[in-house]
Amino acid sequence: MAQETELPLNITPVKERDEPLDLQGFLDEIGNSQEVRVNKLDGRTAAHAVLCTLARRLSDGEDVKLMRALGDDIGELIGECTILRGPSHAKRMKREEFIADVADHLGIKVDQAFRVMTVVFTAVRDRIPEDEVAAVASQLPADLADSFRRPV
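Below the sequence we write its predicted C-alpha cells.
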C-alpha cells in the first residue's frame, strides 16, 4: 500500500520555461497569447490596463515593491499609471469591479477582460519571487488573489 508523503510548506513550483526578464519579452508573451490577440490588443495595452488596475488596488509601498520586483523595464509600466500620482491611491474593489475596470480600459467584454487579466497575471507572477506573489495576493480579495497566485 502506498504511503502519502508530506511536502514541505516552502516548496516552489517548477517553472516550465525561463521567462525573459526584458520588457519586449514580457510584452511579446502577453501579445502572442490567444486571449489578447482575439481582442485585437497588443501586449503593452493589455499589460498597462491590468497593471494600472492592480496598482490601484495595492497599498502605498506595495506597488513600488512590485515595480522593483519586476525590474526597471517591466516595472516602468506600473510607473506610467497616472493614478499613482499623489498620496494614498489604494482603492478597495472586489473581483467584479477589478475585471470591469480592465474591460472598460480596453473596451472589451468582461469575460474577455478576465482572460486578458489572467494572461497578464501569469506573465507577472512568473517574473517575481514567491514572497512578492504572496504580498500582492494578500492585498486582493480572495477570489482575485486566487487568480494571481501561482498554481501549485
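The two ends are 26 Å apart (CA to CA).
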